[in-house]
Amino acid sequence: KATGSFSVVDKNNATAVISVVGNEVEKAVTITVRTNNTEANTSNVVIRVNGEKQEIVVIKEISNGFEFVVTVPAHKVTAAGNYTVTVEIAETSNYNSAFNDTNYTVFKHASSIASVVVTNVTVGQNTTITVTMAPGNVTDDKVTIEVDGVNYTVSMDGNVAVLNVVMPKVGENYVVNVYYNGNNLYIGSKGTT
Predict the structure, then answer these.
(1) pTM here?
(2) How is residue 125 annotated by DSSP?
C-alpha cells in the first residue's frame, strides 16, 4: 500500500486596471483594460459603458498578462456628462474572477463668438447687428442679442446671426451684448461691442 499527500493551491487573484483617454463630446473615447490573468480572452472579458457592452477591438499580450482595448466611436459620444465603465473578467482555470469600475466625464465643446459688428447706426433707421460664431463652432442655433436692455432671440444661418433694429435716441452710446446659451454639445459664451 502506498500513500501520499497533496495540497490544493489557491487560484491567483486577477486584476482589472482601467484607463480612459478622451473626454470631449463627439470625439472618440479609448478604454484600456490591463489584467494579469494570462488566460483572459474576449470570451471571458466583458467591458461595458453605461451598461452597454462594447466590442473589444485590440488584444495585446503584455509582460504579465493581457491588454484589452475598446474604442467608443465619436458618433456614440453624443452627450456631455458622467459615464461609467465596468469590467468583468470571468474565473478561469488558474485565476479568480475580477471586477472593476471607473467613472469618466465627457465635456461639451467650447463655443466662441468671433465677432459682433454694428453697422448703419442712424436714428430712426434699421441698424444691422451681425454676430459671427468662430469657424468650426456652433451653427444653425440661436443667440440672444441685447440692445439697450432689450433682448432679441435671433436664429443663425450657418454660423451667422443678423438682427435689424431701430435705434430710437440720438447721442446715446448703446452697448450690445450677445449671449449664446449653449446646447447639448456646446457651452455658452458671451460677446460685447
Answers:
(1) 0.79
(2) S
Contacts of 128 (CB under 8 A, 6+ apart): 118, 119, 120, 162, 163, 164
Ordered per-residue pLDDT tens for the chain, 193 residues: 777 766 666 899 999 999 999 999 999 999 999 999 999 999 999 999 999 999 999 999 999 999 999 999 999 999 999 999 999 999 999 999 999 999 999 999 999 999 999 987 777 788 899 999 998 788 889 999 999 889 999 999 999 999 999 876 766 778 899 999 999 899 999 988 7
- Distance, in Å, from the CA atom of 116 to the CA atom of 127, rounded to the nearest integer, reads 13
Distance CA 175, CA 118 (A): 10
Give the whole-angstrom CA distance, residue 9 versus residue 94: 10
Task: List, in sequence order, the alpha helices (H) in 81-128.
Answer: none
* Residue 79 · residue 106 · CB < 8 Å: yes
